[in-house]
Every structure is written in C-alpha cells, then in structure tokens.
Specification:
Layout (H helix, E strand, L loop, with lengths): L6 H10 L4 H7 L6 E5 L16 E3 L2 E7 L9 H4 L3 E3 L6 H13 L7 E4 L6 H9 L5 E5 L3 H14 L4 E4 L3 H4 L6 E7 L12 H5 L3 H21 E11 L8 H11 L2 E3 L10 E2 L7 E4 L9 E7 L11 H11 L2 E4 L4 E4 L2 E4 L1 H4 L10 E4 L2 H8 L13 E7 L2 E8 L4 E3 L11
Parallel strand pairs: 5-6, 5-8, 6-7, 8-9, 17-18
Antiparallel strand pairs: 1-3, 1-4, 2-3, 7-14, 9-13, 10-13, 11-12, 12-13, 15-16, 18-19, 19-20
Helix pairs in contact: 1-2, 4-5
Length: 419
C-alpha cells in the first residue's frame, strides 16, 4: 500500500492494533470528511443553509456531513455564526455535555464551565450548543496567535456569557475549585490528524509523544485543581498512542483520585473502546467512524467537604484581575468622541435587541463586499444613522449610513481577502 505516513508510525500502529492496522492505515490515506455544526442558540436549521446533500452525524444532532468542501470563506452565513466548520469526531463534546450537565450543575447557583486549551473554538462552541443561556463559559488559549482566532470564532458564535482568556494554564490553576466542568483538549502528537494535515506527519516522532505527554500531565494537574468537587473533567486528544491517552487516565485515577465516568455511547455509533484498559475510554478511529482520530474520556471529581467552591461573582473578579482577558462578554458600544458607536460584534450576540436599529437584508455580492470591509451604497429608503446589515436574515454587522454611502463598521481584523 502506497503511503506517505512515517514508517515508524506505521510500525507503532501495527503493534497497537495488530488486527486492524491495515484498515486504519488505509483510512488515513483517504480524503478527510467535510462536516459542519449548526448554531443551536441562534435557532439555525440545516435547511436554511446553502448546502445540498447533507447527511447527519450519528453522535451529534447539530452536526452534518457535506458531500464536498465548498469555499466556506465566501459564505456570509459562516461569518454570521450560523454554523461552524468542524471535524465530526469532535462534535461528541456536545453530546457529552448534555449527558453530564444534570449531574454537574447545581440548580441553586449559576454553573461555570472552562475549556483550557480552546483554540480555534470548535469544542467550546460544541459545549455552548449544549448549555442553557446564563451558564458562564470561559475559553482559554495560551498561544497569542491562536487566541485571536478563538476570540473571533466565539464572538461570531454569539453566546454572551463568555470570557476568552490568553493565559498559561498554570496561572488559571491558582484559582482553586471554581468550575463545574473542565475540558482539556490537550496539545498532542496529532496522529489522528495525519490524513488532514501534512505537518502532523512531518513533525511526528517518539520524542514528540514524550514531550506532549509531559505537557498533558501538567495541564491535567491544574485541571483537577480548578474542578469543583462533584464536577466533571473531559479529556481528549487527536492522537492514537496509549501514552497520551489511556495511560493519562490511569494516572488521573491513581494519582488524582478521579473517578471514570461512562457516557454510555450506543454501539451503533461504532466508537471503539479504550485499548488495554478497563476504564471507559473511547476512540474515534477513521476506519470505524466518519471523522478524524479522537480519544476522549470523562472523569468525575469525588465530592468532599474540604474545598469550598469559589462563588461566580468572585470567580469573574479573579479572572479579570489575574488573567489576560481578550473578550469579556460580547462588546456592545465603543466611545468615539462624544458618540457611542455600536460594535458590529454586538449584532452577532444572541442577546442583541432586535428592532432597536434599522436593518437591511442584502444579496450575496453586497454581503461579501461588506465582509471585505468595503463601503456600501444603500437604497434611498434606508434612513441615515446606524444600520444592521443582514444576509438571509442573519446579522453580519453595522454600517453608518450617511446618505451618499454607508461607512463600513465591520471589524477590520476580520475582513475577508479577495478570493
């Protein structure tokens, strides 16, 4: 079989899965699947999108496969936050969240959820899809470059009860038990992405596995520290080896006292069980499931009376004081001179007050011009002042209509390039 996979990796897979290695390696040489997830908080229905031939993702009712990859950048509905382009395997986060929330959330107080390694935002948006309005969600990313993309994607998703931070996980660990659910989609050796990303093949090696496993252990230390008693930890990687997967779960049980939790996935989803373990660990393998490689396990922190959870108001205060916050909710207005100018991010929010501003629904070419940050000309019937630009009913942002033209208020850092 012709392959551009590293030879040492091929040998490792034959040892890991002696009876299925050939099927896995063949799957890793096929073209990756294309899939999207719709935005539940914006009431999106898949039929309202400009796609044909959609088929459902078995394990996530918000997810759909596309028969081919379109030019997503040229679809205004992507920029409106109507959907997110995401690998189908990762969408399991939404289903896991729905299963554990009734046990994790205390109805007497507002729950808090954090995604510690969140960029570019796919798993965070899956978690948001599952929660009710008002649940406090924190999305953190250590890399400043990746944090910018995370901020953009989450502001477009429109969930207002969000903070986006750009801080070291070790710093977050100082807050103590404050979160009901902690997600760790850990930096890993990326074996499960080898058919999708050339870099995953080029950088792979035993040294990278050891380096990633060490970093994962550090992140998990802090994840356990900030988890409330009775709370849940979701741990995942996009790699295959046991060192970064099942062995990390063994460590969480033996050293941190975490209790494995079984999400009880139906057999017809074809999700593999963990390898050489009695704990409920799960593997999305591309020769069994339509998606990239993913390992996931859910753990629960035992309830005790030693640690007092941090109340939500104090948690938010602590975050603002101690972490680098790059989004504190969705910005609404900015002061320019004597005026309060509405921010285009505001119209993307689920809490945007519909009807407060005049709006105009534009065609595709005008929407793309707007997203390129070009000036627009509106019809004479549109009044002067701040106007919401919509495409197929979904808000994109503001312009300031001055009559002869409409000044574009779309964030310049988000503008799409001429393609």
């Amino acid at each position: 079989m012709e392959t551009n996979l590293p030879q040492e990796f091929i040998e490792e897979m034959k040892l890991l899965l002696p009876e299925e290695a050939d099927a896995l390696l063949e799957a890793l040489n096929r073209a990756p699947e294309v899939s999207i997830k719709i935005n539940r908080h914006k009431g999106v229905d898949a039929t309202s999108l400009d796609f044909s031939g959609l088929s459902e993702v078995k394990w996530c009712d918000s997810g759909f496969y596309l028969p081919e990859r379109p030019r997503f950048t040229l679809d205004p509905l992507l920029h409106a936050g109507a959907y997110y382009v995401q690998d189908a395997s990762s969408m399991i986060y939404e289903t896991i969240m729905k299963g554990i929330m009734p046990m994790a959330f205390d109805t007497a107080r507002t729950p808090a959820v954090i995604d510690l390694c969140a960029a570019p935002g796919g798993k965070t948006t899956s978690m948001i899809n599952a929660v009710a309005p008002g649940v406090f969600v924190v999305a953190n990313e250590f890399s400043p470059q990746r944090a910018g993309a995370l901020r953009e994607n989450l502001l477009k998703w429109g969930y207002p009860d969000i903070m986006v931070t750009n801080s070291a996980v070790s710093k977050i660990g100082e807050v103590g038990p404050a979160f009901d659910i902690v997600a760790v989609d850990a930096p890993c050796s990326g074996e499960g992405m080898m058919r999708k990303e050339e870099m995953a093949r080029r950088q792979w090696g035993p040294g990278l596995i050891r380096q990633c496993a060490s970093l994962q252990r550090q992140i998990l230390e802090d994840a356990c520290r900030i988890l409330k008693p009775g709370g849940f930890l979701i741990y995942s990687t996009c790699t295959f080896n046991r060192t970064e997967n099942e062995e990390q779960i063994d460590w969480l049980v033996a050293e941190k006292g975490m209790v494995p939790f079984d999400p009880d996935f139906p057999e017809e989803w074809n999700i593999m069980k963990g390898i050489d373990t009695d704990y409920p660990c799960f593997r999305f393998m591309p020769h069994h499931t339509r998606g990239e490689g993913l390992f996931v396990a859910v753990m629960r922190k035992e309830v005790d009376d030693v640690e007092a959870p941090l109340p939500l108001p104090r948690l938010k205060e602590w975050i603002r004081k101690n972490l680098k916050v790059i989004a504190d909710g969705i910005p609404e207005r900015i002061k320019k001179g004597r005026d309060l100018v509405p921010r285009s991010e505001w119209v993307l929010s689920n809490s945007f007050p519909a009807g407060e501003f005049e709006s105009v629904d534009v065609d595709l070419n005008t929407a793309l011009s707007y997203l390129r940050h070009e000036a627009l000309r509106l019809t004479q019937e549109i009044g002067k002042g701040f106007v919401v630009i919509k495409y197929k009913g979904f808000p994109l942002g503001f312009v300031k209509n001055i009559g002869t033209r409409a000044n574009n208020l779309y964030p310049s850092e988000w503008k799409i390039r001429n393609l």
